[in-house]
Specification:
This is Extracellular solute-binding protein. The protein is α+β, with helices and mostly antiparallel strands. The protein contains 23 helices and 16 strands. It has a three-stranded antiparallel beta sheet. Strands 10-7-11 form a three-stranded antiparallel beta sheet. The radius of gyration is 24 Å and the shape is globular.
Length: 563
């Protein structure tokens, strides 16, 4: 199918979802007027408010080793599995869990052998393969029939999500994730070090470079040792490459007007890959100087985010670009280790003032799918409805607490599809907390917003490290205030092209980007800038210009469809 037809079909799916939000839902999210009388799109007899007898469904999970359970509980017996069984009559059995990389590998095997659980989260590449092989249930009709208003709003609000999950006019996955704005880089700085050295907040990129030098050279921690670094980097360099988070360098490049790992307009108005444009060279040379002068950890190329977080927790790092949530993960560790460590988020700075901040084209992190062989594919939608109820201000506080957090245990992670959130939730929380701090009413705030507001107030009274972290994200001058400032000043620059669709293009693009990261890393570590020219030539000769032409054609098609 030609791309313009796919985009048009996706638009049709989106309009149907947006236009069919029920005014009333049953306890499980099925329309009150239809839940007990309509069969689902797969031909099941009915989807009652509560399945009786209960039905069993299987899932597999990406679940990090840091997830803990109360004594006597497990992934198959916890607050969420019991709540789902009680409210919907659905018994969820998790066949296995693994870390992110192992989950991808195990699912690749399952996809290839067609040995799939009923429901799981697929990567974009797996979704394309599953769609091509006809292994998935169609979900569009199920969302329209059984999706609650909140569920539909989350799906429609996921930028680029419906389009990415639609194949031949059929919605084959529920896209989930945050808004692209949440991935805009901010600059995290040890505010206490700035004060100790008598430095001001950075207004230009030259200020950033001067602060990096001061943090490395002027003993900001006062211990008399030459043991601090001014700017944190991690292996893989880019959030789009290694997972968004802390110590990525998109923000540094943006300060030079460079946008690698992103698609932007060139001076002729055509799509170009940001890493191929001239400003990239200047940013690389600046990083090379910082590395040569000892302002960057010499071992950055072998350290992941956790390794850079160790430097921060040890009091040896003063600044890094990263995501808005970095105060919670990983800088919370720094605050616990040293209660005087005060990290503050700042907007990225350019040559003469504020710079534009790049974001991905879409921020879909999960594609929730149902196997074609699932006996009750509608159960996926109904469980998502249940999770969306956490945003209901009328939910009893005790119930909300039992399903969200208990101390440091993140109970919300027990839900089988825990990435299904309101894409705008962080911006809404920032604005509701700001209004409440200014004396506005708290009536109508969600439970999560109220909990965040309580953290910010507690931080003003001294509070805990957790209170501090929430305040540095959602409080006055927090990272979400920085992002809200980007919005107000029109300084967000989303990539103008998302994922390629053909397997050949995806593989080629991945290869070229791996070569790009290797080239940048070598240049930062001191190799000649001529390596960048070599990479540019390989980009052109290996097919990069063909990818740019495909991205430009896709853009023109989308533009024509929107008229």
């Amino acid at each position: 199918m030609r791309d313009w037809r796919r985009h048009a079909a996706a638009l049709g799916v989106l309009l149907l979802l947006a236009g069919c939000r029920e005014s009333g839902t049953s306890a499980g999210g099925a329309p009150a007027s239809a839940a007990a009388s309509e069969g689902n799109a797969a031909g099941n007899e009915q989807a009652p408010a509560v399945y009786d007898p209960p039905i069993a469904v299987t899932v597999v999970r990406d679940l990090g080793g840091e997830t803990t359970f109360a004594q006597g509980e497990s992934i198959n017996d916890n607050a969420w599995t019991r709540f789902i069984r009680e409210r919907l009559g659905i018994v969820v059995h998790t066949e296995w869990t693994a870390g992110s990389e192992q989950t991808i590998r195990r699912l690749n095997v399952a996809v290839a052998s067609n040995q799939l659980p009923d429901f799981f989260s697929a990567t974009a590449a797996q979704l394309r393969q599953l769609a091509a092989s006809g292994q998935l249930a169609e979900l569009g009709g199920l969302v329209r029939r059984y999706g609650s208003a909140r569920t539909k709003a989350r799906i429609v609000g996921m930028e680029g999500g419906v389009q990415a999950a639609t194949f031949d006019g059929r919605l084959l996955a529920v896209p989930a994730g945050l808004s692209v704005r949440d991935y805009a880089p901010v600059l995290w700085i040890r505010e206490d070090w700035l004060r100790r050295l008598g430095l001001k907040a950075p207004a230009t990129m030259n200020d950033v470079l001067a602060i990096a030098a001061a943090f490395a050279d002027r003993d900001p921690d006062g211990n008399g040792a030459d043991d601090t670094y001014g700017l944190g980097l991690r292996k893989g360099l880019f959030g789009a490459n290694e997972g968004y988070g802390f110590a990525t360098i998109e923000g540094f490049f943006n300060g030079f007007g460079a946008y690698p790992f992103s698609w932007v307009e060139d001076e002729d108005g055509r799509l170009a890959y940001g890493g191929t444009l001239p400003a990239t060279r200047e940013a690389l040379l600046a990083l090379q100087r910082l590395y040569r002068e000892g302002r960057i950890d010499p071992d950055f190329a072998i350290k992941d985010e956790a390794g850079v977080a160790d430097l921060a927790a040890q009091g040896r790092l003063g600044m890094a670009y990263g995501a808005m949530w970095s105060a919670l993960n990983p800088l919370y560790r720094s605050r616990v280790a040293d209660p005087t460590a005060d990290w503050q988020a700042y907007p990225i700075a350019g040559a003469a003032g504020p710079a534009d901040a790049q974001t991905p084209a879409t921020a879909v992190t999960n594609y929730y799918v149902a196997s074609r062989n699932a006996a009750h594919p509608e159960a996926l939608i109904r469980m998502l409805n249940l999770y969306a109820e956490l945003d209901d201000p009328e939910m009893p506080q005790s119930l909300y607490d039992s399903l969200s957090n208990e101390g440091v245990r993140e109970i919300w992670k027990y839900f089988p599809f825990n990435g299904f959130v309101d894409p705008d939730k962080n911006l809404r929380t920032r604005r509701s907390v700001a209004a409440a701090l200014s004396g506005g009413p708290t009536v109508g705030m969600t439970r999560e917003q109220m909990a965040t507001y309580a953290h910010v107030l507690a931080d003003r009274r001294g509070g805990t490290a957790a209170d501090w972290a929430y305040a540095r994200i959602f409080g006055e001058g927090g990272s979400m205030a920085v992002i809200d400032g980007y919005i107000g000043a029109d300084r967000l620059r989303p990539s103008l092209h998302g994922d390629f669709r053909s397997a050949e293009e995806v593989e080629l693009f991945g290869l070229l980007q791996r070569m790009e990261v290797e080239t940048y890393t070598r240049i930062i570590q001191g190799d000649s800038i001529l390596l960048y020219d070599d990479w540019l030539e390989r980009w052109r000769t290996m097919g990069g210009e063909r990818l740019a032409a495909a991205a430009q054609a896709s853009r023109l098609q989308r533009s024509a469809e929107s008229r």
